[in-house]
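USER:
Before I trust my own judgement here, I would like a peer's view. Write it directly below this note and I will take it from there.

ASSISTANT:
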Amino acid sequence: MKKMGKSKQGMVILAIMVVLLAAACGNNGQPAASSGQTGDGSAPEPSFYATSVFLGDSITEGLSYHDVLDVENVLAGAGKTAHIALETGDVDELVSRMPEHVYIQLGSDDILWPTDDPVAYSLSHYAQLIEEIHKQLPDASITLLSVTPVTAEAEEAEPRYGNIAEYNERLKALAAEKQVEFIDLSPLVADHADLYDTDGIHFQAEFYPLLLGYLQESSNLPQRVK
Protein backbone atom coordinates (compact mmCIF):
# COMPACT_ATOMS: atom_id res chain seq x y z
CA MET A 1 0.00 0.00 0.00
CA LYS A 2 1.31 3.42 -0.94
CA LYS A 3 2.18 5.56 2.08
CA MET A 4 0.39 8.86 2.53
CA GLY A 5 2.59 11.99 2.53
CA LYS A 6 2.88 14.11 5.66
CA SER A 7 0.93 17.00 4.13
CA LYS A 8 -1.91 14.67 3.18
CA GLN A 9 -1.85 13.11 6.62
CA GLY A 10 -2.12 16.56 8.12
CA MET A 11 -5.14 17.45 5.98
CA VAL A 12 -6.83 14.16 6.87
CA ILE A 13 -6.29 14.85 10.57
CA LEU A 14 -7.69 18.35 10.17
CA ALA A 15 -10.72 17.02 8.32
CA ILE A 16 -11.36 14.54 11.11
CA MET A 17 -10.99 17.29 13.70
CA VAL A 18 -13.51 19.49 11.86
CA VAL A 19 -16.06 16.67 12.01
CA LEU A 20 -15.38 15.98 15.69
CA LEU A 21 -15.48 19.64 16.68
CA ALA A 22 -18.64 20.25 14.69
CA ALA A 23 -20.30 17.41 16.55
CA ALA A 24 -18.92 18.55 19.90
CA CYS A 25 -20.23 22.11 19.63
CA GLY A 26 -23.85 21.02 19.39
CA ASN A 27 -26.54 21.10 16.69
CA ASN A 28 -24.12 19.06 14.58
CA GLY A 29 -22.26 22.32 14.13
CA GLN A 30 -25.14 24.09 12.42
CA PRO A 31 -26.55 27.40 13.61
CA ALA A 32 -29.83 27.24 15.44
CA ALA A 33 -32.94 27.14 13.31
CA SER A 34 -34.99 30.30 13.46
CA SER A 35 -37.66 30.25 16.14
CA GLY A 36 -39.37 33.47 15.10
CA GLN A 37 -38.98 36.74 13.26
CA THR A 38 -35.53 37.92 12.28
CA GLY A 39 -34.42 41.05 14.08
CA ASP A 40 -36.28 43.86 15.74
CA GLY A 41 -35.31 46.74 13.46
CA SER A 42 -32.37 47.82 15.64
CA ALA A 43 -29.70 46.52 13.27
CA PRO A 44 -27.87 48.76 10.82
CA GLU A 45 -28.65 48.45 7.15
CA PRO A 46 -26.86 45.44 5.63
CA SER A 47 -25.12 47.89 3.30
CA PHE A 48 -23.10 49.04 6.32
CA TYR A 49 -21.29 45.71 6.13
CA ALA A 50 -21.17 45.51 2.34
CA THR A 51 -17.37 45.76 2.31
CA SER A 52 -16.85 43.48 5.32
CA VAL A 53 -16.32 39.76 5.70
CA PHE A 54 -16.99 37.85 8.91
CA LEU A 55 -14.61 34.92 9.41
CA GLY A 56 -15.56 32.35 12.00
CA ASP A 57 -17.16 29.10 13.10
CA SER A 58 -20.77 27.95 13.26
CA ILE A 59 -21.75 30.83 15.55
CA THR A 60 -20.59 33.32 12.90
CA GLU A 61 -22.18 31.20 10.20
CA GLY A 62 -25.55 32.14 11.71
CA LEU A 63 -25.22 35.56 10.03
CA SER A 64 -25.74 34.07 6.58
CA TYR A 65 -27.71 31.02 7.70
CA HIS A 66 -30.42 33.34 9.01
CA ASP A 67 -30.15 35.67 5.98
CA VAL A 68 -28.96 38.59 8.08
CA LEU A 69 -25.94 39.06 5.78
CA ASP A 70 -25.26 37.80 2.28
CA VAL A 71 -23.10 34.72 1.94
CA GLU A 72 -20.33 36.74 0.29
CA ASN A 73 -19.96 38.66 3.57
CA VAL A 74 -19.54 35.52 5.67
CA LEU A 75 -16.69 33.01 5.54
CA ALA A 76 -17.58 30.59 8.29
CA GLY A 77 -18.28 26.96 8.98
CA ALA A 78 -18.86 24.42 11.70
CA GLY A 79 -15.76 23.29 13.52
CA LYS A 80 -13.52 26.05 12.16
CA THR A 81 -10.51 26.98 14.27
CA ALA A 82 -7.65 29.40 13.68
CA HIS A 83 -5.46 26.47 12.64
CA ILE A 84 -8.07 25.14 10.22
CA ALA A 85 -8.63 28.62 8.75
CA LEU A 86 -4.92 28.82 7.97
CA GLU A 87 -4.69 25.33 6.52
CA THR A 88 -7.82 25.40 4.36
CA GLY A 89 -7.15 28.56 2.37
CA ASP A 90 -9.40 31.05 4.12
CA VAL A 91 -6.88 33.86 3.68
CA ASP A 92 -6.80 33.27 -0.08
CA GLU A 93 -10.59 33.34 -0.10
CA LEU A 94 -10.55 36.61 1.83
CA VAL A 95 -8.15 38.08 -0.69
CA SER A 96 -10.49 37.11 -3.53
CA ARG A 97 -13.35 38.98 -1.83
CA MET A 98 -11.18 42.09 -1.19
CA PRO A 99 -12.90 43.26 2.02
CA GLU A 100 -12.12 46.60 3.60
CA HIS A 101 -12.85 45.17 7.01
CA VAL A 102 -12.47 41.67 8.45
CA TYR A 103 -14.26 40.55 11.60
CA ILE A 104 -12.87 37.36 13.13
CA GLN A 105 -14.74 35.29 15.68
CA LEU A 106 -12.92 32.06 16.39
CA GLY A 107 -12.19 30.21 19.59
CA SER A 108 -15.36 28.32 20.50
CA ASP A 109 -14.01 25.23 18.78
CA ASP A 110 -10.34 26.04 19.44
CA ILE A 111 -10.75 25.54 23.18
CA LEU A 112 -11.99 22.01 22.49
CA TRP A 113 -8.84 21.09 20.55
CA PRO A 114 -7.29 17.94 22.07
CA THR A 115 -3.94 19.27 23.18
CA ASP A 116 -2.30 20.02 26.53
CA ASP A 117 -2.83 23.79 26.27
CA PRO A 118 -5.59 24.51 23.71
CA VAL A 119 -5.64 28.23 24.53
CA ALA A 120 -1.95 28.71 23.76
CA TYR A 121 -2.24 26.42 20.75
CA SER A 122 -5.14 28.40 19.36
CA LEU A 123 -3.66 31.85 19.94
CA SER A 124 -0.39 30.92 18.26
CA HIS A 125 -2.37 30.12 15.11
CA TYR A 126 -4.64 33.13 15.63
CA ALA A 127 -1.52 35.34 15.60
CA GLN A 128 -0.36 33.71 12.36
CA LEU A 129 -3.79 34.25 10.84
CA ILE A 130 -3.76 37.96 11.68
CA GLU A 131 -0.24 38.34 10.30
CA GLU A 132 -1.17 36.58 7.05
CA ILE A 133 -4.28 38.74 6.57
CA HIS A 134 -2.22 41.86 7.19
CA LYS A 135 0.32 40.64 4.65
CA GLN A 136 -2.21 39.77 1.94
CA LEU A 137 -4.70 42.59 2.66
CA PRO A 138 -2.57 45.44 4.05
CA ASP A 139 -5.34 48.04 3.69
CA ALA A 140 -8.03 45.97 5.44
CA SER A 141 -8.79 46.65 9.09
CA ILE A 142 -9.32 43.72 11.46
CA THR A 143 -11.61 43.35 14.46
CA LEU A 144 -11.39 40.35 16.80
CA LEU A 145 -14.63 39.36 18.50
CA SER A 146 -14.58 37.60 21.85
CA VAL A 147 -15.80 34.05 22.24
CA THR A 148 -19.42 34.23 23.32
CA PRO A 149 -20.12 32.68 26.73
CA VAL A 150 -22.24 29.54 27.00
CA THR A 151 -24.97 28.74 29.49
CA ALA A 152 -24.20 27.08 32.81
CA GLU A 153 -25.84 23.91 31.52
CA ALA A 154 -23.64 23.86 28.42
CA GLU A 155 -20.51 24.38 30.54
CA GLU A 156 -21.55 21.58 32.87
CA ALA A 157 -21.92 19.28 29.87
CA GLU A 158 -18.56 20.41 28.40
CA PRO A 159 -16.24 21.69 31.17
CA ARG A 160 -13.68 22.97 28.65
CA TYR A 161 -16.02 25.89 28.00
CA GLY A 162 -14.90 27.05 31.43
CA ASN A 163 -11.76 28.34 29.68
CA ILE A 164 -13.68 30.97 27.70
CA ALA A 165 -12.93 33.84 30.12
CA GLU A 166 -9.20 33.08 30.08
CA TYR A 167 -9.26 32.72 26.32
CA ASN A 168 -10.90 36.10 25.87
CA GLU A 169 -8.41 37.86 28.16
CA ARG A 170 -5.51 36.46 26.18
CA LEU A 171 -7.27 37.21 22.89
CA LYS A 172 -7.65 40.83 23.99
CA ALA A 173 -3.92 40.95 24.77
CA LEU A 174 -3.16 39.47 21.35
CA ALA A 175 -5.30 42.16 19.70
CA ALA A 176 -3.32 44.84 21.51
CA GLU A 177 -0.04 43.21 20.48
CA LYS A 178 -1.10 43.02 16.83
CA GLN A 179 -2.71 46.49 16.97
CA VAL A 180 -6.11 45.34 15.81
CA GLU A 181 -9.49 46.10 17.34
CA PHE A 182 -11.07 43.85 19.98
CA ILE A 183 -14.76 43.87 20.89
CA ASP A 184 -16.09 41.99 23.92
CA LEU A 185 -19.48 40.43 23.13
CA SER A 186 -20.18 39.33 26.72
CA PRO A 187 -22.38 42.37 27.59
CA LEU A 188 -24.52 41.80 24.51
CA VAL A 189 -25.02 38.13 25.36
CA ALA A 190 -25.77 38.92 29.01
CA ASP A 191 -28.51 41.34 27.93
CA HIS A 192 -30.08 38.78 25.60
CA ALA A 193 -29.66 35.44 27.39
CA ASP A 194 -33.16 34.55 26.22
CA LEU A 195 -31.79 34.27 22.67
CA TYR A 196 -29.60 31.23 23.29
CA ASP A 197 -30.57 28.19 21.29
CA THR A 198 -31.48 25.02 23.17
CA ASP A 199 -27.84 23.85 23.18
CA GLY A 200 -26.79 26.92 25.20
CA ILE A 201 -23.96 27.62 22.75
CA HIS A 202 -25.50 28.94 19.54
CA PHE A 203 -28.08 31.68 19.14
CA GLN A 204 -31.51 32.16 17.67
CA ALA A 205 -31.99 34.23 14.53
CA GLU A 206 -33.08 37.30 16.51
CA PHE A 207 -29.62 37.59 18.06
CA TYR A 208 -27.82 38.41 14.83
CA PRO A 209 -29.30 41.81 13.93
CA LEU A 210 -28.58 42.81 17.53
CA LEU A 211 -24.99 41.63 17.08
CA LEU A 212 -24.50 43.81 14.00
CA GLY A 213 -25.97 46.81 15.79
CA TYR A 214 -23.73 46.19 18.80
CA LEU A 215 -20.62 46.00 16.63
CA GLN A 216 -21.49 49.25 14.91
CA GLU A 217 -21.95 50.98 18.25
CA SER A 218 -18.85 49.46 19.85
CA SER A 219 -16.34 49.94 17.08
CA ASN A 220 -13.69 52.62 17.40
CA LEU A 221 -12.75 52.37 13.76
CA PRO A 222 -13.29 55.37 11.47
CA GLN A 223 -16.97 55.70 10.68
CA ARG A 224 -18.00 54.16 7.40
CA VAL A 225 -20.65 55.49 5.08
CA LYS A 226 -24.02 54.17 6.27
Notes: Confidence is low (pLDDT under 50) at residues 32-41. The two ends are 60 Å apart (CA to CA).
